[in-house]
Design goal:
Strand order of the largest sheet: 1-2-3-7-8-9-6
Structural class: alpha+beta
Distance between the termini: 20 Å
Shape: globular
Number of helices: 6
Number of strands: 9
Largest sheet: 7 strands, antiparallel
Strand content: 25-35%
């Protein structure tokens, strides 16, 4: 059986996920007649059955912990915590497809939100913005600190409306660490203007405890 990394690295899987994301945004942003919508439903049901006929993608906590033992990515390298991540995973058709890189001791990401992310017309839903902030903080936790852990507290300050349909920057950096407690900050910005910012407390889990969760 293919390993998870081999399955997830397939170009066709990434293309399919991108196409499904585009379809979702198109259905939110545009009207379609009943015939088109019925065709979408019929094709989606048929293809879902075909996909579910294949083997399951195997994901274990042990695999994630093993990945944390790898060296910290070099400055400028793309970082990720799994292509199936519901926020940044490019193989997740329900995700936001955010791309992140290490920049020194920080993580800088870029993302363009589309129609399905809007809460009000043209403006991103607050939960989507919070997810972007939390996810870039997660990159700081695992990609730079190489520490398994979880979000214990997240406080978001919405400064300005976050628009959809335009490139956004998302930055995260650790402020300080006190034992198991990691205090991480993040911002969403456009052309240098802060639109939203967050402060979070993450709690680290030792590797043996994390591995035992699988």
């Amino acid at each position: 059986m293919d390993t998870t990394s081999e399955v997830m690295g397939e170009r066709s899987r990434l293309r399919a996920a991108a196409a499904l994301r585009n379809l979702g945004h198109a259905m939110v942003a545009h009207r379609a007649d009943d015939a088109v919508l019925e065709r979408v439903a019929d094709l989606a049901d048929e293809l879902a059955v075909a996909v579910m006929g294949g083997p399951l993608v195997e994901r274990t906590v042990a695999d994630e912990v093993a990945r944390l033992a790898e060296p910290v990515p070099p400055d400028g390298a793309v970082v990720d915590h799994g292509v199936l991540c519901p926020v940044s995973g490019h193989a997740n058709p329900l995700g936001l497809a955010m791309t992140a890189r290490r920049v020194g001791d920080a993580v800088h990401a870029t993302v363009t939100l589309a129609a399905a992310a809007a809460g009000s017309p043209g403006i991103a839903h607050g939960g989507v913005v919070a997810a972007l902030l939390d996810d870039v903080m997660g990159f700081v936790l695992d990609s730079l600190q190489r520490t398994p852990g979880y979000t214990a507290r997240l406080e978001v300050h919405f400064r300005k409306p976050v628009p959809v349909g335009v490139p956004l920057g998302v930055r995260g950096q650790m402020r300080r660490r006190d034992g198991r407690k990691l205090f991480i900050d993040a911002v969403v910005e456009q052309h240098g203007t802060t639109l939203a910012e967050a402060e979070a407390l993450f709690l680290a889990i030792d590797l043996d405890t994390a591995a035992a969760l699988s």
